[in-house]
Amino acid sequence: MTAQIANSHKSLQKNELKILMVFSRLNDFKHEIYDGFMDEIEGKATVDLYIHQFSTQNAFHFEKVIKEKISQYDYFAFMLHANCPNEDFLKIINSIPTGKLILLEKRNEFIRGNYACVYQDFEQDIYEALFKAKESIMKYNTINCIIQEHYANAYFVIEGVKKFAKENKLQCNIYSEVEENTIRSKEAYLILSERYLAETLVCCQHKKMKVGEDIGIVSYNETPIKEILSGGITVVSTDHFQLGKNAADLILSGKKEHIRNQFLFIQRNSL
């Protein structure tokens, strides 16, 4: 699945930077990244957005687009799905001069050269966020992680949770779905999907558990609704808006650095 390149500005001043942002898909979090990017750019460049769902079947089309555009843009900002790209896409991306390349959210060891990057360290981010929440988490005897089997960075998140649990002598369980017997009193839960969060809250209602007292909940990724849901859901989240701003700053400054993005712990009533 591909989309036409969308222009963010109608006119282009002479010698103005041209940037092509390439996302595999759009969601609320990627919109925040884009908004942060545009906020920092603030008219200093023309930014076009291209949505391309990476797959082996459409690698040829993607290669054709990049070859056509490689001389038209000063920078290519890629936000790749964690399980992509495959060898075909790596070859295409490696054909872009590294001076023109910036990666968003995740570094890739198979991309050569001195490129710019704003990344998340999923394992360390989770560990450090849980450490900030240590006083609240230690009210419970167990920390559980409910995470989708297909979640791209599951391994790193789970390792961060296990590291925290081991250091603090907490029992740790990993679940890939929510069931009645999964949700237990006097235990804390890190929940990595909106659906699992909803299912957990419904289960708490059925069992007459009070969130923040009988059970502790930490949700992954901030959304406006979590500020008011069940009296406020505690959140760990990368700062998506800041990620976009950091990426734009690297381009405007010409730096070829790898910057770890800010990761937030937001304490609310659910923990």
Helices and strands in order:
Blueprint: E1 6-7, E2 17-23, H1 28-41, E3 45-51, H2 59-69, E4 75-79, H3 87-94, E5 101-105, E6 116-119, H4 122-132, H5 134-137, E7 142-146, H6 154-167, E8 171-175, E9 187-191, H7 194-206, E10 215-220, E11 234-238, H8 240-253, E12 258-260, E13 263-266
Question: What does the model show?
Answer:
The structure is a single chain. The chain is an alpha/beta fold and 271 residues long. The protein has 2 domains: 6-119, Rossmann fold (3-Layer(aba) Sandwich); 122-237, Rossmann fold, CATH 3.40.50.2300. It is 33% helix and 23% strand. The chain has helices at 28-41, 59-69, 87-94, 122-132, 134-137, 154-167, 194-206, 240-253; strands at residues 6-7, 17-23, 45-51, 75-79, 101-105, 116-119, 142-146, 171-175, 187-191, 215-220, 234-238, 258-260, 263-266. Strands 1-3-2-4-5-6-12 form a 7-stranded mixed β-sheet, with helices on one face. A 6-stranded mixed β-sheet has the order 8-7-9-10-11-13, with helices on both faces. Strand 2, helix 1 (28-41) and strand 3 (45-51) form a beta-alpha-beta unit. The longest helix is centred in the first third of the chain and has 14 residues, at 28-41. The radius of gyration is 21 Å and the shape is elongated. The mean pLDDT is 89. GO terms for molecular function: DNA binding. This is DNA-binding LacI/PurR family transcriptional regulator. It holds the Pfam family Peripla_BP_3. InterPro entries: LacI/GalR-like_sensor (IPR046335), Peripla_BP_I (IPR028082). Keywords: DNA-binding, Transcription, Transcription regulation.
